[in-house]
UniProtKB/TrEMBL annotation:
This is Lead, cadmium, zinc and mercury transporting ATPase. Gene3D superfamilies: Calcium-transporting ATPase, cytoplasmic domain N, Calcium-transporting ATPase, cytoplasmic transduction domain A, HAD superfamily/HAD-like, nmb1532 protein domain like. The keyword Calcium does not apply. The lineage of its organism: Bacteria, Bacillati, Actinomycetota, Actinomycetes, Mycobacteriales. The keyword Zinc does not apply.
Amino acid sequence: MVDVPTPEPSRWERWRRAVEPALLGLTLTALVVGGLAWLSGAPGVADRCWIAGTVLAIVPSVWWVVAAMRRGRIGVDLIAVLSLLGTLLVDEYLAGALIAVMLATGQTLDAAATRRAAKDLRTLLDRAPRSSRRRVGDGIEVVAIDEICAGDVLVVGSGETVPADGWVTSGLAVLDEAALTGEPMHVQHGIGEAVRSGVVNAGAVFEMEAHASAEDSTYAGVVRLAREAAAESAPVVRLADRIAAWFLPLALLLAAAAWALSGSATRAVAVLVVATPCPLLLAAPVAIVFGLSRASRVGVVIRSGGALENLGHATTLVMDKTGTLTSGRPSSTDIVVAPGHDSVEVLRLAASADQVSPHVLAAALVQEAKVRRLALSYPTDVVEEAGAGVTATVDGHRVTVGALTLPPQAPQWARTVLTRSALDGAVVAWVTVDGQLTGAILLGDPLRRDAPRTLRRLRSAGLTRLVMLTGDRREPAEEIGTVLGLDRVYAEQTPSDKVAGVRRERQSAVTVMVGDGVNDAPALAAATVGVAMGARGSTASSEAADIVLTTDRLDRLADAMEIARRSRHIAVESAAVGMGLSLVAMGSAALGWLTPALGALLQEAIDVAVILNALRALRGDRVHNTVVPARTEDMLHRFSAEHEVMRDKLTMFRDTAQLVATGDHRRAEVSLRRVDDFLTGTLLPHEHAEENELYPALAGPLGSGEATATMSRMHAEIDRLGRRLHIHRHQIDTRGELDPDQLEDLLACLYGLYALLRLHFVQEEENYFTLARSDDHTGNMPRT
């Protein structure tokens, strides 16, 4: 694997980090001691102290200016150096000491706000294998990773990382490919199928033939891409330096004109003293630093002031799918059972058998059962076959959970499951009990509950283009793109494709990239601003990012965007007002109305004014915050919990409709009675309680009752269809059988309720339930 050294701070950077705080302390001491000496009647001592403070500031300031010029930047520090030198030449020592303190303070604040953290790529390397097992004849030898050549037969053990690109030659490879694609589902590869380096063997031992060396394989390319993208990122241009591009020549011209017209060097120095851009050196960094502080309080770590500035005027957002827009964890989307079986019992048996399996899908089933508070039994005689699943004895039944090849004459319900899984992009865990196919559990990667609201907030914050780059398949990616209203979706993207996509977007706009996996690290580094979902994302992506969301909540990105825009607005406002006042003072100094010392004091007064204005960045902007009272929040949690209980029962509407459509009227009548009992006893009372309790309580936080008006209309339609369905049941009970004249309207009611309720649940969860604080901070969209 290609070795990439971990970046270390340069000698210059280490020296600057040590000098800046020391310089502030020394110049401030010189100013204070000089002031005390002057008050004590020792002007000579005072002058010497102030001279010392001025000289202390000149030496590093000249160095900073020279270093900036070497990088092709001439910033505001140049005016400060000229002012310091000028005060010494015209014996205005107090003015020099004041400027020295101001300059040292500005450098310290600016460094705290804009110093970028090194993009540490060591995590990528630590994850890469250092050695591999290679088959030689009938034996196996351990070789260094660099010794692998194309054609070598490699043995990959369970839990090991695939060291090179190649093909499977024996066994079934069950791989965790999240490091490259971000996809949380394990992928199976049979003999002859290609595998890539960097993925983890999640199954049994298998053999593979390398078709490239480790250095030329996929994972090494990811490391190189991250290194190149990080090196390519240009240094952030400070807000102060952008304004200085026009202010610096103006100040020098005015000082030269004042000297030429008056013949007094003191007047020119006075112009430079009041031209010293304190609002830029102090106020702008103060606003940025306080913006960083506010962001950290909401769980967003922004590593530099430059990143905050760029985030504040970004217009394009590029996102990964898995773990960013979706939960990144597989969960049950539906349970389908054979006729005569109960879905809850099928899940209980499957989860009981899966308790001892380390497979990610097994963990999802067990978690699902725990959420429903099912009593699991301990399995015995457990046999796990890689790629096939688990077989165990549970409560006297032999239960198998996992992959299954259906026979040609598979029952209709099972063939329907296959069709649905293909349409939904779901993985199917088949369940057999005592050798009979009993049920199927569909698992998918659900959309985060807070994703739609967050993307709407981001658009309102100024983002005009939302793009998704994902390694996942096209169908589920485009479905999510449609639901979220994304401007463009790119699916089946490799890490290099993602980097190219981010670079393409960056050419036309300031671009933010959000991701959470190792495969996202290069794209994060290539973006103007990289944002990592750091709560459970990879360390590599966090270290390649400029911003890290420390909680697993996407809405924190919208918070960060709003904070960044507000902080940048205040910084620009403070700089503009301060520079305007400085321009007025420069004109007064040019006319001889201000001495250098008086000009320095006036400049300090301007500093205080703009810094006080910059302090507003520490306060939150409450305009976009929806504050929910505690009682209302308790209601939201209550109704959300009721949704969790009812959601799995919604499939009975579709199942009943299928019985009606296939002509199985006797079973359809029994199923219809269960549907009606659920409607009248559970679902409609829940809807009525929402209408009469929750929606009025939300009118205050949301601004008016109109915010829930459309949802109230949907309640009315659900109630109408429910009553219509109850009439059908009453007619069946009266006649003793289902009348053919009822079929068309009955099907319309059943399918209509199924679609309406699914949509209604999702809308309420996205629009209202997300207003409540999440106890687990997952922010995941519940299963629908």
